[in-house]
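DM from R.C. (forwarded with permission)

"hey, sorry to bug you on a friday — could you get me a structure for this? deadline for the figure draft is monday and I only need the backbone to look sensible"
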Amino acid sequence: LSYSEKIGDLLFQDYYRMYDKEAVYFDEAVRKAKRQLLESRILNLVQPAFQKNLSHLRTKALEKFKTGLDQSLESGKGFAASVRETTESSLSEFNQGCADSVIKQADWDYSKILEKVRRDIEDHALSVRESKLTELTNHAKEKLRKALVEPVESLFDAAGQTTWASIESLYKRETQAILPEVFKALSGFEMGSEFSEEMVSKLRDYGQSIVENKAKEEASKILMHMKERFTVVFSHDKDSMPRTWTGKEDVRAIAKEARSAALKLLSVLAVIRWDDKPDRIENILISTLLDGSVASMSSSASSGDPLASTSWEEVHPKHTLITPAQCKSVWKQFQSETEFTITQAVSTQQAHRRGNGRLPPPWALVAMAVLGFDEIMMLLRNPIYVFLLFVGYLLVRALAVQLDIGREFQNGMVPGILSVSAKLLPTLQNLLNKVATDQQHPPQQQGQQHRPPAAEAPEAQQPPPPLLLSPKSSMSELRRLHTPPSPVRRSVSSPSHSSPPSPKASPRKVAEDQKPRRAPDNESSSAYSIV
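My reply, with the result:
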């Protein structure tokens, strides 16, 4: 049973039956009046419970709307469609509950409660819509910020003539890339085109504010950026290789080129250029600061100085980042802080030129000749000093190499002195021992080289047989050639066993023995015939 049925059946029917039973003997008019009074009292008693029931139904309808809206949005439906479906479902359930709560005997109106429920639902829908739109806007802004901050910063770091044109093209490209996603998300809210255009306009303004804030941030650090640009151009060549000041470079021209690059960076960050219109800021800065003299300009009248102003020509004040007067003061400070770098480069060139000279300057030669005359004469009179100095130099040089003086003094002066003093005596002993050993080895090697080789037994060599016999060859030679060799042992007699020639032999006999013997005629003729 519903709430109204329970109240009507249990309360009104029972009490009415009891009243009619007891008031049956009273007058009809009095009985009706008293019955109406009883009914009004019963309704007054039941009405607070009815109001509480309506409040419960109101809360229940709102909670149902919240739950249904969240579920519908999570399922991927559009916001407007989800609100309509959930509102109809919640109000239908609320109307049904109110209809069940109304008592037939009472003519109670719950339209005000229904309007309150509608307002509650609309307020919650508006709050959810605002939160969703804010979330959508923040997401789009964050995405646009990430797409603009780093590229804009890199463009400002490498600022040039096309910097603002590149920034504007980047801004338009990233803004156009994010708009389709925004339009797709806004289509679910079923809002008018005016709201969409307003939101797109806010996104574009936000993108411009990102670029302008980044430009202001970089303009506040203009002096640091100018010094960095000057250092890069001055210390590196066109191939980005570090310069070596050998004396052949034109320091004045390189310094002017580096200052010109820094001045161009100043002109880029001086104003914001959204329309990409040409201006004369760079020409004014170069002609006034780089080509002219700041000291002479400061003494000139303010009317003739183009930088004696707080605004640039044809530039809106809100787009001015660095005023002309600020440009002049920044340039003075920049020159004073970069002058040391130029002076150091010139000094390096001069030192390199002096280092490449073969002889010291003439005044140094004259000073050495005059101040060292006594020492030179002493060396000439006693040449032994020259030899001792040379030997001492070699000894000190060898000790320095063995001790590795440079590595020992890397940890400090006192630790280096202690380490060298501890190693000095052992190193000197090792050096002297090595010199003594080197002096002893060469004679031994020379003695080994001059040692006579072992006597080898002479081998008797057989003379090669003649390849051709002459007509005068003897028959014995012919017979020896045609006779096969027989294995005959050769006995080599030592000189001690050989009999010495007889001292009694006459010279005539010796001469006869040495004369060649002539072969007989028949032998020579036969040999000739054979040949």
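R.C.: lifesaver. The radius of gyration is 62 Å.
me: no worries. Residues 28-74 form the longest helix (47 residues).
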